[in-house]
Design a protein that fits this description.
Keywords: Lyase, NAD. This protein is an alpha/beta fold. The protein has helices at 12-24, 61-71, 85-90, 93-116, 155-174, 196-206, 225-238, 255-272, 275-279, 313-319, 327-340, 342-351; strands at 3-7, 29-34, 52-55, 75-78, 124-130, 178-183, 185-187, 210-213, 219-224, 243-247, 252-254, 295-298. The protein has a domain at 3-188 and 221-250 and 303-327: Rossmann fold, CATH 3.40.50.720.
């Protein structure tokens, strides 16, 4: 039996991980530490009555230490982060505070509890990072591996790179048992509707423009969030302390291809279920038109990386990890979830105008 702190566990990936871990390891104790900022939602944890939510800041080292000590915590899975690139361009300070200083706060508390107090307790600090720390690839460049040099191009990716380096340093300097995973672009349930897939899905349902940056040919590797959770679980189970593992979805696609799949799937859903036209009358599909009519090209984002791609050979060989879904399957599941959970996303759209 393990006792876990999951930071950012009320956010998108963190909440999916809590649901996944609670399902596969129901005997374990999980404490979610989340500040419940705009992207954190306590309702993401509905149905998990045995999971404790602590509303607090990872920068509060004393609070983290108290949680570790009072609950005999032996595992920290660290998701908490500012993660939206556009927000990092307009307001980078929050990214440095949360992603760098916050990670350091957690590392200090973990070192104090697991090393300085001399308990010798087996432990693991798993840090969840991003492929964006590696920068941008040319069309013919090999995919990112764990030995690719860091070259972050946005305040977001730079702050995540800084946190990665701190985790590495705490292992090599102090002996803290850490692992890090760098993932590709996630999608799936509970994703806050500022990211491409939920934003474009909800815009298609509501008849709003689909704003495409530049020429739409920026390439990303797409990873269903449950496959990502399986990869993290494999890191915790089989990952070697001090090592980094790239977790990808094996679905390297231009944004335009992703958007076309969203439009196709939405149109097909309306054709299969006439009741959707009553629920979403502003959708082109409700009026016998194509969702692709909503596509609108807009000025490209500053510093927009052209291509990301993940080489997950190390995770496959050492952890036995492989994604279980291709993008059409994964998005079909995601669309079904959003259609079934209007109660979850509609209040978000009502509280604030979500723009990309």
């Amino acid at each position: 039996m393990a006792n876990l702190i999951v930071t950012g566990g009320a956010g998108f990936i963190g909440a999916n991980f809590v649901h996944y871990w609670n399902k596969v390891q129901p005997q374990d104790k999980i404490i979610v530490l989340d500040l419940l900022t705009y992207a954190g939602n306590k309702h993401n944890l509905d149905g998990l009555d045995d999971v404790q939510l602590v509303e607090g800041d990872i920068c509060d080292t004393d609070l983290v230490s108290k949680i570790i000590d009072e609950n005999a915590i032996d595992t920290i899975v660290h998701f908490a982060a500012e993660s939206h690139v556009d927000r990092s361009i307009t307001g980078p300070d929050a990214f440095v505070t949360t992603n760098v200083i916050g990670t350091h706060s957690l590392l200090k508390a973990a070192k104090k509890a697991w090393l300085d107090q001399g308990t010798g307790k087996p432990h693991r600090f798993h840090h969840v990072s991003t492929d964006e720390v590696y920068g941008s690839l040319g069309p013919n460049d090999p995919a990112f591996s764990e030995t690719t040099a860091y070259a972050p191009n946005s305040p977001y990716s730079a702050s995540k790179a800084g946190s990665d380096h701190l985790v590495r340093a705490y292992h090599h300097t102090f002996g803290l048992e850490t692992t890090t995973s760098n993932c590709s672009n996630n999608y799936g349930p509970f994703q806050f509707p500022e990211k491409l897939i939920p934003l474009f899905t909800l815009n298609a349902l509501n008849g709003k423009p689909l704003p495409i940056y530049g020429d739409g040919m920026n390439v990303r590797d797409w990873l269903h969030v449950e496959d990502h959770c399986r990869g993290i679980a494999a890191c915790l189970d089989k990952g070697r302390p001090g090592e980094t593992y790239n977790i990808g979805g094996g679905q390297e696609l231009p944004n335009l291809t992703v958007i076309e799949e969203i439009c196709r799937a939405v149109d097909n859903a309306f054709a299969a279920d006439p009741s959707l036209a009553e629920r979403f009358p502003n959708a082109p599909a409700a009026q016998g038109r194509k969702s692709e009519e909503l596509k609108t090209f807009v000025t490209d984002r500053k510093g927009h990386d052209r291509r990301y791609a993940i080489d997950e050979t190390k995770a496959r060989d050492e952890l036995g990890y492989a994604p279980a879904r291709d993008f059409p399957q994964g998005f079909a599941e995601t669309l079904d979830w959003f259609l079934a959970r209007e109660d979850w996303w509609q209040p978000l759209l009502e509280r604030a105008a979500i723009t990309r």
